[in-house]
Amino acid sequence: MSRAKAPKVAPARTTVRCAVYTRKSTEEGLEQEFNSLDAQRDAGQNFIKSQAGEGWTCLPEHYDDGGFTGGNMDRPALKRLLADIEAGKIDCVVVYKVDRLSRSLLDFARMLEVFEKHSVSFVSVTQQINSATSAGRLMLNVLLSFAQYEREIISERTRDKIAAARRRGKWSGGMPLLGYDVGPAGSKLVVNEDEAARVRATFALYAEHEGLVPVVQELNRRGWANKPRTTR
């Protein structure tokens, strides 16, 4: 008699815990009911839903960095994301675009080391990149190179614009120095006569004492301080 074959048992589907990371460089528009971070998260969640057949599930935690540059890793949500990866809570990181995670090749390489160490894959929704494949890793490095190039070009243009404005005698932003105030139009500095008198007196004290310490002591005795600043 032939022995009956045992029925095949389908392998248990593995759950892939996915974290959606979002970032926006400026705080502009974040006060809106539906902002850029929400749009990025929706795109990530929809992509994860499309992979539900593969066991993908979206974690409820929000990793949102609003008003933070992608040129460094000093971002609170990114730090929480990396900490949760090291704690073994995440299997896949999903972003809208590669440059949302980082615009620096060096920083991204460091993050990928953490990802690979903990067997975490990286997916870009709009660019169809999955770091779990060799082709995906190749495209990832290519796109990240362009992202860093774009960031550097923007920085160069900004520096050139500020330098050109200064050559024309225009105010390029920031806090004015002691002796000056920002004019009504906000594009030029105007002399503050009261503060300017203190500045001239300070230079006269240095010419008299020929040393910083006695000048500072005399300024403290007179109660003269630097220009007051009001921050947010």
How would you characterize the overall build of this protein?
With 232 residues, the protein is an alpha/beta fold. It is built from 7 helices and 8 strands. Strands 1, 2, 3, 4, 5 and 6 form a 6-stranded mixed sheet that branches. A hairpin with a 4-residue loop joins strand 5 (121-124) and strand 6. It is elongated. The mean pLDDT is 83.
Q: Could you write a compact summary of the structure shown?
A:
The chain has helices at 36-50, 76-86, 98-101, 105-117, 134-167, 193-209, 212-222; strands at 16-24, 56-58, 63-66, 92-95, 121-124, 129-130, 180-182, 189-191. The protein has 232 residues and is of the alpha/beta class. Strands 1, 2, 3, 4, 5 and 6 form a six-stranded mixed beta sheet that branches.
Give the SSE map:
Blueprint: E1 16-24, H1 36-50, E2 56-58, E3 63-66, H2 76-86, E4 92-95, H3 98-101, H4 105-117, E5 121-124, E6 129-130, H5 134-167, E7 180-182, E8 189-191, H6 193-209, H7 212-222
Parallel strand pairs: 1-2, 1-3, 1-4, 4-5
Antiparallel strand pairs: 5-6, 7-8
Helix pairs in contact: 6-7
Task: Give structural attributes.
232 residues; alpha/beta; six-stranded mixed sheet; two-stranded antiparallel sheet; 8 strands; 45% helix
Fraction of residues in β-strands: 5-15%
Helical coverage, percent range:
40-55%
Order of helices and strands: EHEEHEHHEEHEEHH
Gap between N and C termini: 87 Å
Mean pLDDT: 83
Q: Low-confidence stretches at least 5 residues in length (pLDDT < 50)?
A: none
Task: Tell me the Rg in angstroms.
Answer: 28 Å
> Helical region count?
7
Main beta-sheet strand count, sense and barrel state: 6 strands, mixed
Shape: elongated
Strand runs, count:
8
Structural class: alpha/beta
